[in-house]
Amino acid sequence: MFFSQNTDTIVALSSPKGIGAISLIRISGTNSIALVDRLFPSKKLLNKDSHTLYVGSFIFEGEIIDEVVVSLYKTPKSFTGENTVEISCHGSTYIQSRIIDVLIESGCRLAKPGEFTMRAFLNGKLDLTQAEAVADLIESNTLASKNNAIRNIRGGFKSDLSSLRQRLVHISAMIELELDFATEDVEFIDRTTFIHLVDELILANNALLNSFKLGNVLKNGIQVAIIGKPNTGKSTLLNTLLNENRAIVSDIAGTTRDTIEEVLNINGVLFRLIDTAGIRDHSIDLIENLGIEKSLEKMKNSDLVLYLFDSSNTPIDDLLLIIDDFNQQAIKFLLVGNKVDCISISDQNLYNEIPNLILISAKSKINLDNLKDRLVELTVEGDIDSESTIITNSRHYEALKNLSVSLTDVQMGIKNNLPGDLLSLDIRQCLYYLGLITGEITNEEQLDLIFSKFCIGK
Ligand SMILES: Nc1nc2c(ncn2[C@@H]2O[C@H](COP(=O)(O)OP(=O)(O)OP(=O)(O)O)[C@@H](O)[C@H]2O)c(=O)[nH]1
Ligand SMILES: [Mg+2]
Question: How many angstroms does the Cα of residue 320 sit away from the middle of ligand 1?
């Protein structure tokens, strides 16, 4: 569908909907400059240079719709690779929609989500990994996710893939040569070097695959449920970490009834903290029981559970039972002994022997930096600031997993002295999976699916 409509002139609001000081309307397509020129008569846009700006009236059938700034980008030096005009207008919702309506009446079509970026891809300005990184950049909400997206827009992942590709093509060329001289029994590359090259490819691919866990952290954040008995200070901890009075705190057991979810940025990583209803065995209150059920559900679905207990009145034996319980359910946890301000040093020392435990005071703000460090240590594996590529996209991950299987086939093939023509087929399969990621191999349906996740106007 997209391929056939690539000659249309498309228009969309690229800034958010709603009132703002200024809004941006973007138009792309061969005829975009001629089309806007008719509605912006004070300047002869068709004669102007690329990358220039003009102030003037946007006029339709004698009505001055707005005083706007028009930016010109001429093919091929634009984001889409096509002639592109950007109109910065006043951010009234009426003006935004009126300008877009007039442009549609004059021959534009409303752009589909991601259609500008898809045109950039189809016109060879970006490969698919870079196009997808544009969407990641827009969605980024931490320094780390923003940096990773920018790295990939600038071609970080693309260059990893092209290095893999070049090495595969080299191996493939050697095999093809051998096939050409099959009757003469020549070996252009000795099998040990061959195996070594493939091993290197497998290692490089594994490094990319392994980064996906960290990529997930960058993209989706880490869910942390704060669980514990009533009155242990769960809501106080949430408030203190957020530095605001988000949840109600009181000394009445059972204060929190429903879960409260808020985000906290620690060292560039997004933690989704969930304050839950205190868990107790015998509540006759229906709402409280529903809250407790929800707490248990959040506990199971979280990346990490902070089990908060009151260090002034919790027997060590109870904690040992809780540790057993978490281990049996394979739940990742940290025991957090709150209210350390109420216990003596010698009582604090009683907890020294228990693993995965930290003592804090949510109310008096004791040891909270240590708690944040432990949160990161327990959940973030790898270096989010590293310059290496971090895979965040499950489409890439799936293709790399398939690549891994095919590379292993090549490796086994060499070890088992598989004939060159069969090895060649396996290598082609590897190149196919790389092509799927970069977009060299794709189809309309797949592109539709990828770009439909973008926002309109991008
Ligand atoms: N001394 C002391 N009191 C604390 C500390 N943290 C919380 N409290 C007090 O403990 C009481 C209960 O605090 P909450 O944060 O409401 O406890 P909760 O675990 O959310 O309780 P529920 O929502 O009922 O499950 C309040 O009176 C808090 O002021 C602490 O570090 N030291
Ligand atoms: Mg609470």
Answer: 23
Which of 259, 281, 294, 363 for a ligand 1 pocket mutation test, highest count of atoms within 8 Å of Cβ? Answer: 363
User: From the CA of 342, which ligand is nearest?
Assistant: 1
Which of 229, 236, 237, 259 for mutating ligand 1's site (highest number of atoms within 8 Å of CB)?
A: 236
Query: Across 81-95, 176-190, 263-277, which has the greatest mean pLDDT?
Result: 81-95
- In this structure, which CATH number among 3.40.50.720, 3.30.1360.120, 3.90.180.10, 2.40.50.140 belongs to the domain 3-126? 3.30.1360.120
3-state secondary structure of 97: helix
In this prediction the pTM is 0.79
The total number of residues written for the chain in this structure? 458
Average pLDDT, the chain: 91
- Could you report the per-residue pLDDT of 280-324, keeping only the tens digit for each? 776 566 676 677 777 788 888 899 999 999 999 999 999 999 999
User: Kind and range of the H or E element at 149?
Assistant: helix 143-153
Q: Is omega for the bond preceding 76 within 30 degrees of 0, making it cis?
A: yes
- Listing from the earlier edge strand, what are the strands of the sheet with 333-338? 260-266, 269-275, 222-228, 304-310, 333-338, 357-359
For domain 221-379, give the CATH number: 3.40.50.300
Torsion of CA 176, 181, 183, 189, to 10 degrees: -70
Query: How far, in Å, from the CA of 255 to the mean position of ligand 2?
Result: 5
Whose Cα sits closest to atom 10 in ligand 1?
A: 233
CATH 1.20.120.430 fits 138-217+393-439, yes or no: yes
Look at the alpha carbons of 116, 122, 123, 125 in this order and tell me if their dihedral is positive or negative: positive
